[in-house]
Amino acid sequence: MLKKGIFSILLIAFTCLSAQQNPVQIAFLSDVHFQDVYGSFSDHDFKGIVNPKTGKATILRTMDAQLHSTRVFNENYFAFLKAVDDIAVKGIKIVAMPGDFSDDGQAYNIRGLQRILRTYHEKYGINFYITTGNHDPVGPFYQDGGKDDFLGSDGNALGIYSNKTLSKNKRNIITKDIAESGYLEILNELKDFGFYPQKGNLYWSTPFASYSYSGYSYDHAMKCANYPNRMYEVSKGFSVPDLSYVVEPVNGVWMMAIDGNTYIPKNLNKGSDDPGNYNGASIGYNNVLTHKKHLIQWVKKIAEEAERNGKTLIAFTHYPMIDFNDGATDEIKNLLGEKKWQLERVPEEEVAKDFADAGLQIHFAGHMHINDTGIRKIGDKMLVNIQVPSLAAYLPGYKVLTIHSQDVMEVRTEVLHEVPRFDELFPLYEKEYKALQKIPGKLLWNKEILKTKSYHDFMLFHLKELVRLRMIPDDWPKDFIEKGKSLSGKELLLLSEGSKYTLPKNINIHSFKKWNLEDLLFDLYKFQSADELARKDISKERWMQYQVLVKSFEQNQSKDPFILKLKSVFRILSLLSNGDPADHFEIDLKKQSVKKL
Questions:
Q1: Do 324 and 374 form a contact (C-beta atoms < 8 A)?
Q2: Angle at CA 326, nearest 5°, toward 586 and 396?
Q3: Residue 370 zone, left/alpha/beta (φ > 0; ψ -120 to 50; rest)
Q4: How far apart are CA 294 and CA 288, in angstroms?
Q5: 109-142 burial by CB neighbour count: b if 16+ within 10 A, else e?
């Protein structure tokens, strides 16, 4: 008996030690915006245009479209493969995808994504758990769609549509596979990736299931997973789907995939089955507070159940729960106006309060294509919102969560600097550029992007062109840009009354001449996108100069409108560059602390 008792103690000790040595890891891949550049249509023989570099037919969007968008459409295909390869090498077996896994949910893209996820599951044993974003689906129900910015064989833009009534050009391609899938189509194609229970899951449930954790059965869960059993009334008479679920993929960890899409009807007098009668979901959680309150009640129920059963609850959704501008939102609003800088997507403070009160502590989100951490402490509760960067924007990367214990977790940002084949499509863009040169008065994109040597540099160049071609013209006051664009750093220093400010000994005033206001705004967007990781893409000398200008403008008492705007720019720069840890950090729920590692 004694020997048996000693053996039991040793077995328990060994089991505990093994658990400590193998903490649970979850990778978060958000805003992949997958488009199958090597896909095909089920009802049309168009395979794309032949790439002279590879000899392969390619279905791709134009570079002109990419550089006017907050995301790339083509190179992210290769970035996605690189990311899942990385995850496989690291031995991570759980991947969560917080929405926008597709770019408008077209059937050919969803099929392509499904093939890749299935391949990595079968080859490496990786289990993928998906939740929906505003691009998948675009609306709650299937609707016709298409794009006019695919690349044609002559280098000009080509339209591909699902219905010929949408197309005015006879040379356009018509295929149902470019239509925007609704929830039903996405659920049917991707049901094996979280949306339905798997036999290996220890628990799975939805907001509409009546059973508890102790009463769980796979057969019961399968019935609850069916599409008709996942509907709610968003407005009186308008029933739409909600694909939220909670799953226990490994013992002790509950992953809560919250469907934050809220599709509100435009006209209450029109039919509920009209797919065009719903507003988009991009505003996020602000609409959840008014039209999807059952989610907050469900989170409270699951959080309480998780605590009772000793489970670690990790939530992920497409939309942020906490302001992602590092305290700069009011300053940005005063400078640019409340409709600029995507400020309509900033969640109200009530969002964080309601979900913290419901018992949520750790939440991963996407949507904004940025790297950021937001922390809210409300009474004796803390909510941490981790923004996962996009693979399709600067700074391309993903997050890895390591659960060391119920209280202590580690978050690391994995940046994709090198991506094999990222330049595979460049010869096709050369053809596009030649065609664009023949269009009178066309504002051309910068061809230097085709000389970039790494995916990191390509995405940094994408951001630079995006700022030049879209952000500055759309967001910033025209008079401010016209007055300031030619000002050098030295002239900005003099305007800040820098001559009265004692410069540090290691800074030379003439070195400020190397950059101008447009360079400053580009760096501002780097910080908005990459948070503290942007420092690696700004020289130490420039960074020290910015610190001088922040202090100098802060001391400036001028009431001149232009000076006040410059003062505001540097205040925003200071706030965006000094947020909470967003690269590698530890979360201690017991101590309610987030510590940089």
A1: yes
A2: 70
A3: beta
A4: 9
A5: bbbbbbebbeebbeebebbbbbbbbbbbbbbbbb
Whole-angstrom distance, CA of residue 391 vs CA of residue 76: 6
**Residue-level pLDDT at 167:** 84
Q: What is the mean pLDDT of residues 191-203?
A: 97
Judge whether residue 3 has pLDDT over 70. no
Backbone angles phi, psi at 193, to 5 degrees: -115, 55
Q: Is the pTM of this model over 0.85?
A: yes
In whole angstroms, how far apart are CA 22 and each of 15, 129, 400? Answer: 11, 21, 14
Distance (Å, whole) CA 542 – CA 396: 23
Residue range 29-46: mean pLDDT, rounded: 97
Kind and range of the H or E run holding 435:
helix 426-437
Q: What is the DSSP code string of 479-535?
A: HHHHHHTT-BHHHHHHHTTTTTS---TT--GGGGGG-BHHHHHHHHHHHHHHGGGGG
Q: What is the mean pLDDT of the chain?
A: 94
C-alpha 364 chain-centroid distance: 10
Geometric angle at alpha carbon 371, from 545 and 532, rounded to 5°: 30
- Token pair 């309610």: residue: 592
The answer to whether 199 and 205 have CB atoms below 8 angstroms apart is no
> What pLDDT digit, counting tens, does each position of 475-504 carry?
999 999 999 999 999 999 999 986 566 777
Give the DSSP per-residue string, 115-160.
Answer: HHHHHHHHHH-PEEEEE-BTTBSSSSS-B--EEEEEEPTTSSEEEE
**Contact of 53 with 427, CB cutoff 8 Å:** yes
Strands 94-98 and 127-131: parallel
Q: Measuring CA to CA, how many Å separate 581 from each of 15, 68, 398, 548, 564?
A: 34, 30, 15, 23, 29
The DSSP call for residue 348 is P
CA 260 to chain centre: 14
